[in-house]
From TrEMBL, chains A, B:
GO terms for molecular function: monooxygenase activity; oxidoreductase activity, acting on paired donors, with incorporation or reduction of molecular oxygen. InterPro entries: Diverse_substr_monoxygenases, Luciferase-like_dom, Luciferase-like_sf, NTA_MOA. Belongs to the NtaA/SnaA/DszA monooxygenase family. Residues 20-387 form the Luciferase-like domain. It comes from the Bacteria. Keywords: Flavoprotein, FMN, Monooxygenase, Oxidoreductase. This is Nitrilotriacetate monooxygenase. It comes from Sphingobium cloacae. FMN binds at D59, T103, Y157, S227, S228.
Length: 453, 453
């Protein structure tokens, strides 16, 4: 392992009313936040004022409404909200430094469409965009794209591998100095500095060039969130940030070592990829106050929501009839390739949790690391994960908004800064600069790199 | 024809440095405007301060670079710029009233992706979005989407018909009052007020619902730009605004009468669809100054650019060898279905124009109506087209930016206002309100309409 910076990276993973499943019912939450641009602009600015590396938005190309039984979903707040690329574009023009990462699926986009949207977000934000590559998980998505069933993981990842290559190739279409724009001669671009892609592969034929010039960070940062084996393989080759879910330091360390260990095979260094587990933090002035805040949120969950959550995660409708205060049934098994259900079942079996207890344990963070405590005790744990090589930083998942982010920014960030582990102001202007990631020089003519460094 | 408002509608059709083919070489143009968000925000605000109904952006899913001979395109400024949906999203959060219309193709998008992007732009702008439906024209686009050749017009329009229906259906997924968001009971949405689409057609199977709620204008305004027969048929059934190109009032009147005459067959009224021809205006304090400004722009065109333009429009590379100061060759013919080449050839033959003269005539406006003069003489002509039922308004195509828009806003708009033909301030906040278009009530439960009107 090469020498590592001691600076912790922070993302703000924003969901309209917050990450807790009942966040929208919290007295401090704005129930219609998912349709309120000004709400998002305000919380992005809060994160920017605190020096966060980025805001991060999830996505799916379908609504979470249960198609057979819409009434079953009526307690769910994330059924309809903004599309993240447009939302981040709107936020881009009202912020100046913070990175802007949107999730988008390789399974239902075409690479030219997606490469363009992200390149444009990157250009208009002055080099602050990131693309969180996912292959989609909801059955509802398939049915919005001419399919009855979601493709199998192998097929999705085979497409994703080629999709990532095409997208990165399109982002190399124009060299950084391709546009002399010389009014006197009338020459707008230098034809020697274009690189059309002319890709012909199993899934895509894409000629290029992209019709968007490169941004000041070269191209968007590539983020990934899958922790399955094909997800890890793709991430080790192409990702620059990994967003991941771990309940324990041991699990995080094993993942961290595995991913970083795969990098040299692709000619990559450990510092070329940042691993950022999700953290769901509940901050109090005392440990007791933090616990009380956490339990207030938990008390807002309806029992029906808990059972529906488990039935959905494990894809077993029978769980709707399961007695909520008994352990999960013995017959429940999971497909080892789907990492989140496996993690939840293992947790429930290990600790003998009832259905209600399992749901309450993961309700807010959906399998991510949940911590409550004072700023000092939270920073102790973040430092332990960072210093123990379980993380390069964290994707912070505020329990509810804006209060949950305000608590973190008001108490945890200053404690991180006091200990010298987090920036007090931005040193650069691009997401790559914040994250300390290398500039993607052009493979054919690395002119900018030669001139600038 | 029913009683018509006497108010002229105005769109600002924005291209980075302006519409003239050599606009970027003008001393007053910012050559890198196509990569400068602040440039676009400033001109959108200029148009908003003047009370324009909307800004309008063109699009193609490919670069105008000649793939066989990139050097041949080196004088072209529109080879790489922002993607319009992301750009308008960024502009949305810095403006408050002006409509925001982006072009997007039904040939290479999937309807769920496109319906979502525009619904989200509509939501975050407070009901100001419009979608200009096109079926694409560039061969380069096909080659970015797994095809060797662009599909034939019949195939493109068959897909576009179904695409438009699916998109509008997805925009009806949620009733306006579908979200009680009741914290006490925990009910976020009312399952009786969702309308999944469950569409199964020749081109698309889309279950829905869309995962974006409706905006305050119901859904984006549907704009169309095709003037071919299948384009007219589709527009008469689905469009709410038509952007069109005419050189003469007679041509505009014939088009206007044809389109408005088709509406009753679809149960639509004349005022349900606004016809807005493009206008390329050069404004001067005197007629002589206007002509001088126009000729200054024309003088910036390189002869090679003129021949390449004609070779491209007519898809005949032999025109590159044609003597620029002779009339178009006798052998040149056009496919009657492609409306723009037919219009240009007819113009050249009618007036006996040389290749250079034809190009100079249409260079700036690419077949649209070019006028130069004082504010009063320009308004005379706009009024004549409006009062003669050739137009419900105009899509203004500034020759260069920002100067060409500043001239129009500073001189022509005040003259229109003085004559009582254009608003002095916005009466509403949505694009539909500006254009006087009906609110799209929900076909199943027109609750909002009943309650509000």
């Amino acid at each position: 392992m090469t020498q590592r910076s001691d600076q912790i990276r922070l993302g703000a993973f924003l969901m309209a009313t917050g990450h807790h499943v009942a966040a929208w019912r919290h007295p401090g939450a704005k129930a219609d936040a998912g349709a309120d641009l000004e709400h998002y602009v305000a919380i992005a600015r809060t994160a920017e004022d605190a020096g966060f590396d980025m805001v991060f938005l999830a996505d799916s190309q379908g609504s979470m409404v249960d198609q057979e039984d819409p009434a079953a979903s009526r307690f769910v707040s994330q059924v309809a909200t903004f599309e993240p690329i447009t939302l981040l574009s709107a936020i881009a023009s009202r912020t100046s430094h913070i990175g802007l990462v949107a999730t988008a699926t390789t399974t239902y986009y075409e690479p030219y469409l997606l490469a363009r949207l992200f390149a444009s977000l990157d250009l208009l934000s002055g080099g602050r965009a990131g693309w969180n590559l996912v292959t989609s998980a909801l059955r509802q998505e398939a049915q919005n794209f001419n399919l009855d069933h979601h493709p199998e993981p192998e097929a999705r990842y085979a497409r994703a591998e080629e999709f990532a290559d095409v997208t990165k190739g399109l982002w190399q279409s124009w060299q950084d100095d391709a546009f002399p724009r010389d009014k006197a001669s009338g020459v707008f671009f230098d034809p020697a500095r274009i690189h059309p892609l002319n890709h012909r592969g199993a899934h895509f034929s894409v000629a290029g060039p992209l019709n968007v010039p490169r941004s000041t960070q070269g191209h968007p940062v590539v983020v990934q969130a899958g922790s399955s084996e094909p997800g890890r393989a793709l991430a080790a080759r192409t990702a620059e940030v990994i967003f991941t879910a771990h309940q324990t330091l041991e699990s995080a360390q094993a993942f961290y070592a595995d991913i970083k260990g795969r990098l040299p095979a692709f000619g990559r260094r450990a510092e070329d990829l940042r691993i950022m587990p999700g953290v769901f933090p509940v901050v109090g002035a005392t440990e007791a106050e933090a616990l009380e805040k956490y339990e207030e949120l938990q008390s807002l969950i309806l029992p029906e929501v808990a059972l529906r959550f488990l039935a959905s995660v494990f894809n077993r409708p029978e769980l709707l009839e399961h007695p909520i205060d008994e352990p999960l049934p013995d017959w429940l098994e999971v497909d080892g390739r789907a990492s989140r259900p496996a993690l939840l079942l293992e947790l429930a079996r290990r600790e003998g949790l009832t259905a209600r207890e399992l749901h309450l344990r993961v309700a807010g963070a959906r399998g991510h690391w949940t911590i409550h405590g004072t700023a000092a005790s939270i920073v102790d744990r973040l430092e332990a994960w960072f210093d123990g090589y379980g993380a390069d930083g964290f994707n912070i998942m505020p329990p509810y908004l804006p209060g949950g982010l305000d608590d973190f920014v008001g108490h945890v960030v200053p404690e991180l800064q006091r200990r010298g582990r987090f920036r007090k102001s931005y040193a650069g202007t691009t997401l790559r600069e914040h994250l300390g990631l290398p500039y993607p020089t052009h493979p054919h003519h690395a002119i900018r790199a030669e001139a600038a460094e």
